[in-house]
Design brief:
Blueprint (H helix, E strand, L loop, with lengths): L1 E7 L7 H8 L5 E4 L8 E5 L2 E5 L11 E4 L4 E3 H13 L7 E4 L3 E3 L1 H14 L11 H9 L12 H18 L11 H15 L3 E2 L1 H10 L4 E4 L25 H4 L8 E9 L1 E4 L11 H10 L12 E6 H10 L4 E5 L10 E9 L2 E2 L7 H4 L3 E7 L4 H7 L6 H14 L2 E6 L7 E3 L3
Parallel strand pairs: 1-10, 1-11, 2-5, 2-10, 5-7, 6-8, 7-9, 11-14, 13-15, 14-18
Antiparallel strand pairs: 3-4, 12-13, 15-16, 15-17, 18-19
Helix pairs in contact: 3-4
The structure holds inosinic acid.
The site of inosinic acid (IMP) has 21 residues, from helix 4.
Length: about 425
C-alpha cells in the first residue's frame, strides 16, 4: 500500500483541490490534516463549481473523507459547507471527524480580528477565520475538542467557561464584540446534533484503515511558505501544511510507504501580508490576476501575483521530500508577451546560497529573473496529444533541472479534463 500526500509548494492557492480530486479516484480515503476553514479548495466539474473549506476534496467522488485531529473545526462553516454540498447533490454520508480535532468558536474569530487590529501595520493579513486563536487554545491546553461534544452537560460547562473567559478578558479591547452566552450555546447545540454521528475515535478509525489496507490520500491546506515553522514567519498560518504533518495531524500511523506530490502554479501568488520578491510589475499583475481569477476562495481578497520563484520552490520541494510535482495554470501564462522565472536572490550584489533566514532578509533581496519564450494556447492543446512545443519543453526542462524533481502533471484549465500527465 502506498499512500499519497498532496502538499502546496508555495503560499497556498496552488490548485491542490483539483489535483486531490483527480488523484482521489484511485483511493479509498481522503484525509485533511491541518488548517481549517481558512482554506478554499475549488473543484470544477462541467458547469458545477465546488468550493471546499473544511471537508476533504474526496467527498465530491463519494470517498470516505476524514477531518483529522490537526484540523480546527468551525461548526458553523462546516454545516454551511455540508448544506451547500447537499444542495448540489453531493452526499456527505462518508464524512468522519476525529474526536481529537479542536473546535473553533465565534470568539476565536473575534480574537483574530482584535489581534489584527492591534498589530496595525504589522498585521498578518489573516483570513479572519479564527485559526491562530484556536490553535493558541489548543497549545495552551484550554481548547475544546470535537469529542467533547459527546457529553452534552460537560460540553456546555466547558463552553461557558471559555465564553466567560473571552467576555471578561477581552472586554477592554477596542474592537471587542460580546458573546451572548445563552444564545450562542443554543446555536452550537443545534449544530452539535447534526455532527454527533460523524465523530470517530482516531485510534479505532486508524486501526480499521490499516487493517483493511486502504489507499489513503492526505490533502494539505495552505502551502509550505505559510508553514508556522518553515514558512515566512510571522506571515504564516498557525499550522504545518508540510507533508510530514500528515501523520500527526491525522493520527494514522505510517505503517506504509508514501509518495509526496507537490503542487505549484507555473507562477506564484500570495494573499495576506509579507515580502514577495517575485512580484510582477503592476500591469502584468493586474492582467494575471484577472485572467487567473486570483481572488481568495475564502475571503474574495485580491491575491498578489508574481513569477515562478525557483529559490522558494526548491526550498519547499526539499522540505516536503517531494517525489513529483503537479504544476498548474499553464493556460494563464499562455499568449503573454514574456514569461519570467526567478532564479536567484541577491543582497548587496551577493548571491544568496539559501532561502533567506527571516522575513527581514527576504524583504531585502533583489530578485534575479531569467526570461522564457511564451507558449500559446494551441501549443498547450497539443500537449494532450503528447506534442511538446519548444517553449514549453524549455521551460519544463529548466524547472525540473533546477529543482531536481520531475513534473509529472500540468494543468491547462480548470476542469478535470485539463490535467495532463507528462513525462519530460
Ligand atoms: P490565517 O491562516 O487565516 O491565520 O492567515 C494567515 C496567513 O495565511 C495569511 O497571509 C492568509 O492570507 C494566509 N492563508 C491562510 N489560508 C490560506 C489559503 O488557503 N490560501 C492562501 N493563503 C492563505
Amino acid at each position: 500500500m502506498k499512500a499519497k500526500i498532496v502538499v502546496g509548494l508555495q503560499w497556498g492557492d496552488e490548485g491542490k483541490g483539483k489535483i486531490v480530486d483527480y488523484l482521489s479516484k484511485d483511493v479509498d480515503l481522503v484525509v485533511r490534516y491541518q488548517g481549517g476553514a481558512n482554506a478554499g479548495h475549488t473543484i470544477v466539474i462541467g458547469s458545477k463549481k465546488y468550493v471546499l473549506h473544511l471537508i476533504p476534496s474526496g467527498i465530491i467522488r463519494g470517498k470516505l473523507s476524514y477531518i483529522g485531529n490537526g484540523v480546527v473545526v468551525d461548526l458553523e462553516e462546516l454545516l454551511k459547507e455540508i448544506e451547500t454540498l447537499e444542495s448540489m447533490g453531493v452526499s456527505v454520508k462518508n464524512l468522519k471527524i476525529s474526536s481529537g480535532a479542536h473546535l473553533l468558536f465565534q470568539f476565536h474569530k473575534y480574537i483574530d480580528m482584535i489581534n489584527e487590529n492591534e498589530k496595525g501595520k504589522r498585521a498578518i493579513g489573516t483570513t479572519g477565520s479564527g485559526i491562530g486563536p484556536c490553535y493558541v487554545d489548543k497549545y495552551n491546553r484550554t481548547g475544546i475538542r470535537v469529542g467533547d461534544l459527546i457529553d452534552k452537560t460537560l460540553f456546555i460547562q466547558k463552553l461557558k467557561e471559555r465564553i466567560n473567559f473571552y467576555n471578561n478578558n477581552f472586554k477592554s479591547k477596542e474592537s471587542f464584540i460580546r458573546i451572548d452566552e445563552k444564545r450562542y450555546i443554543e446555536t452550537i447545540l443545534e449544530k452539535r446534533e447534526k455532527i454527533l454521528k460523524m465523530i470517530v475515535y482516531p485510534d479505532l478509525f486508524a486501526t480499521e484503515i490499516i487493517k483493511r489496507k486502504m489507499k489513503i490520500l492526505f490533502e494539505s491546506a495552505q502551502g509550505t511558505l505559510l508553514d508556522v515553522d518553515f514558512g515566512t514567519y510571522p506571515f504564516v498560518t498557525s499550522s504545518n501544511p508540510l507533508s510530514y504533518a500528515a501523520f500527526t495531524g491525522s493520527g494514522i500511523p505510517q505503517y506504509f510507504d508514501y509518495k509526496v506530490i507537490g503542487v505549484a502554479k507555473c507562477y506564484s501568488t500570495r494573499v495576506g501580508n509579507g515580502p514577495f520578491p517575485a512580484r510582477m510589475d503592476e500591469d502584468t499583475e493586474n492582467f494575471v490576476r484577472e485572467k487567473g481569477k486570483e481572488f481568495g476562495a475564502t475571503t474574495g481578497r485580491k491575491r498578489n501575483c508574481g513569477w515562478l520563484d525557483l529559490v522558494a520552490l526548491k526550498y519547499a520541494v526539499f522540505l516536503n521530500r517531494t517525489d513529483e510535482i503537479a504544476m498548474t495554470k499553464f493556460d494563464i501564462l499562455s499568449d503573454m508577451k514574456k514569461i519570467k522565472v526567478l532564479t536567484g536572490y541577491e543582497i548587496d550584489g551577493k548571491r544568496l546560497e539559501n532561502f533567506p533566514r527571516n522575513v527581514e532578509q527576504l524583504s531585502m533581496v533583489k530578485p534575479i529573473f531569467v526570461d522564457f519564450e511564451p507558449w500559446s494556447m494551441r501549443e498547450l492543446e497539443d500537449l494532450k496529444r503528447k506534442k511538446f512545443s519548444k517553449s514549453i519543453l524549455k521551460f519544463l526542462e529548466f524547472v525540473q533541472k533546477s529543482l531536481g524533481t520531475n513534473i509529472t502533471h500540468i494543468t491547462t484549465g480548470s476542469e478535470r479534463k485539463d490535467i495532463i500527465k507528462i513525462n519530460v
